[in-house]
Design goal:
Heat Shock Protein 90; 11 helices; elongated
Length: 393
């Protein structure tokens, strides 16, 4: 007679059979996919209801005064629903998608902001996503719930297949369009920087004319008027006043030349960047070595930005660096114009250190350029600027 044995735990009086602890047959990612599929129904109901209620109401009332604002608000809300769906896909499906750029806001009135919202492709695509999700949400919820109780062996394969469709939907409708939207928003912001910079330059020119050459010319006219009155009764005094006026004329002409050079130097137009940089380097209080390796001249706009960037940096070296020597190198690499300005001064310069350097960085950024400052305390300082190369037309 053969005795039967059962595995029993020591100290177990009854000798019950001990089963191993229960374990789920599916891995964590599969359970996340199942959770996503089961959540599709409530989320799609919410999104579909929102689109039908708010956006369709706004579209239907678009012939009235309140219709377009309601539609604009609806599209803004659809953007937020899309943000939530991207976050849900990121947590449960492992799909990482960059957030689309926000709508530009700076310097825009109510009507312009409303128009930007109405033509927002991100909001429209998010609304379309919510519309087509309702039948898909019903289907995925029903299949997943049934599989949990009936088709358990095939559930992992079914969950993976259904969520792959979800992944494709999210990527196709909720992701930025090849970075085009992001780039448009950046260019909108850069255009604002360019406009602000141009306005500041115009104010500076106006101030220089008013306080400099204009004031000097007014004094000159008054002096010549007094000299004219004294011409017959006191020729010697009149001659002295005319001589003084002659000196004022020379100073006024010099101020006008300096102002014109600050707008756009003639040497840059006539002889190019190499000669213009050599000219501005000669006025620096620190000895500057200029090296330019340019097979041809870039477009005038790029040439001008490069010139004024170097000019501003050399002024900073003269005023603040305490340097004994400096160097300027300019060259072309593929489709980029590179500028490097070096000095052996005290260092410590940074983009946060003053409006001048920060303004240069913003101006270069507005034309798709780069601006990098390497200036440890004690020096030396190396500033590298990079501009897109555009041939002269």
């Amino acid at each position: 007679m053969t005795a039967s044995h059962s595995a029993s735990r020591p100290g177990d009086a009854q000798g019950e059979t001990v089963l191993p602890p229960a374990r789920f047959a599916l891995d964590s990612q599969t359970w996340k996919e199942i959770a996503h599929l089961l959540a599709n129904l409530p989320m799609s109901l919410l999104g579909f209801s929102y689109v039908m209620t708010v956006m369709f109401t706004g579209a239907g009332l678009s012939i009235t005064v309140i219709g377009l604002p309601v539609l604009a608000v609806g599209l803004a809300g659809a953007r937020q629903l899309g943000r939530f769906e991207r976050a849900r896909a990121r947590v449960l499906l492992g799909v990482r998608i960059d957030e689309p750029s926000p709508l530009p806001r700076r310097g825009r009135g109510f009507l312009q902001r409303m128009w930007e919202a109405l033509k927002d492709p991100v909001g429209w695509r998010a609304g379309l996503y919510e519309l087509i999700r309702l039948p898909w949400g019903i289907l995925t919820f029903a299949l997943t719930l049934t599989s949990l109780f009936v088709l358990w062996p095939v559930l992992p394969f079914l969950a993976r297949g259904l969520t792959n469709v979800d992944r494709a939907m999210v990527r196709g409708l909720l992701s930025p369009s090849d970075e085009l939207e992001r780039r448009i928003a950046e260019l909108e912001s850069d255009r604002g920087v360019v406009v602000d910079t141009a306005a500041a330059d115009l104010r500076r020119i106006e101030r220089d004319l008013h306080d400099g050459a204009q004031a000097r010319l007014v004094n000159l006219a008054m002096g010549l008027g007094l000299a004219k009155e004294k011409l017959l009764e006191d020729p010697d005094t009149a001659a002295s006043m005319v001589e003084e006026a002659h000196g004022e004329v020379k100073l006024a002409l010099q101020e006008l030349r300096d102002l014109a050079r600050g707008i756009h130097p003639a040497v840059l137009t006539d002889r190019g960047l190499d000669a213009a940089l050599s000219s501005v380097a000669s006025r620096c209080t620190v000895p500057v070595k200029v090296t330019a390796d340019l097979p041809s001249r870039p477009a005038p706009a790029i040439e001008g930005i490069a010139y004024f960037t170097v000019s501003e940096l050399l002024q900073n070296i003269s005023k603040h660096s305490g340097a004994r020597s400096a160097a300027v190198d300019v060259w072309r690499t593929d489709d980029r114009l590179l500028i490097q300005v070096w000095d052996d001064g005290r260092g410590g310069a940074s983009l946060d250190g003053g409006t001048g350097i920060r303004g240069l960085a913003e101006r270069l950024g507005a034309v798709d350029g780069l601006f990098v400052v390497d200036s440890p305390p004690g020096g030396p300082t190396t500033v590298t600027a990079e501009l897109p190369w555009r041939d002269r037309s």
